[in-house]
Amino acid sequence: MIIESIKLGKRDKEKLVIRTQCGKYISARIDDAYMLKVGQELDEEKAEALCRAYEAESVKKSAARSLAHHTMSKSDLSKKLRERGYSDEVAEETAEWFEEKGLVDDAAYARSCASHYKARGWGELRIREELRRRGISKELTEEVISELSPSHDEIRALAEKKLRGEIPDEAKKQKVIAFLMRRGFKFDEIRAAMSELRLDTEDSV
After folding, report:
1. What is the pTM of this model?
2. Class for the domain spanning 3-100
3. Which of 61, 133, 150, 185 is 20 to 30 A (C-alpha) from 158?
4. In the structure, what pLDDT confidence band is assigned to residue 52 with cuts at 50, 70 and 90?
């Protein structure tokens, strides 16, 4: 194929759009301009190499823009790139590249998320679910969960806040238990904390 024209991209000024006589358009990095000229013959292998090099550079810039706004897990970054139209392979390779450079750190990210949600009064079950939703592996999730401080004091404080000093009837007690379970606390933890408040939970579900 013969290069018919070489133009800068309209939006991406670091992109070259190469049109060949056969009507094919090829994307290339502007850094490759020195080796290209109108009238030059370009074989399929070289054309594909130019496109791959441009895509690799483009996806890294896209990933960097995402990470500049907020931290992400490796899985979330890969997912975001796929949503932007990049192939599964390119998205995964890019996420791995950022991980290797230390710009994506699932362990630090998971601990930060867990601490944040624990401070918001979430229990172990809900934090675990949130970490898995964010693409954290099961093994790392369990490791981070095991490092969290016991929930006993948080449960008791939340229950006392919900009761507002009242002596609850059975309906009110059930509402408090349901509230704490939605927060992600285990029933055994809830029962222990409620027991200290002299609220029997033996018949609650």
Report:
1. 0.64
2. mainly alpha
3. 133
4. confident
